[in-house]
Amino acid sequence: MRVEDLEVYKKLFQLALEVHELTMTFPKFELYELGSQLRRSSNSAPANLSEGFGNKHTNIYLEGISRSQGEIRETMHHLRIANAKKYLTNENLNIFINRYEECSKMLYGLEQSLLRTQKR
After folding, report:
1. pTM of the model
2. Rounded to 5°, angle at Cα 22 from 65 and 63
3. Which of 63, 44, 43, 46 is CA-nearest to residue 4?
4. Distances from the Cα of 99 to the Cαs of 11, 30, 68, in angstroms?
5. Distance between CA 87 and CA 110 in Å, rounded?
6. The predicted structure's pLDDT at residue 120
7. What confidence category does residue 117 fall into, taking pLDDT thresholds of 50, 70 and 90?
8. Which of 4, 11, 2 is nearest to 99 (CA)?
9. Tell me, what DSSP letter sits at residue 105?
10. In angstroms, what is the C-alpha Rg of the chain?
11. Where are the domains of the chain?
12. Rounded (5°) CA angle 92-10-38
């Protein structure tokens, strides 16, 4: 199995692409401010999952999942700021937030599965 086979990785990867596209519509002065922060955090969520994936040391895999969760929370914060600045509609904000929350739940399930396996 590869990290690319994980459904949560596929979803986070797609979200990173969509967030990148969104930030390209921000005002020019925001491209290297809020836009850059959003692009980095959204890309870091699947990247951190990839980094820890399949490591023979389960704790390293769990750490990657934890960092990925943190990047999801950071991305949701930046999306809320973008919404408050009127760069993102309420409807689109809710769509992104719901999709990130779904990924967060999937990561939690993966984490719980690894913890159960680790206790055996």
Report:
1. 0.92
2. 10
3. 46
4. 8, 24, 14
5. 33
6. 61
7. confident
8. 11
9. H
10. 15
11. 3-119
12. 45
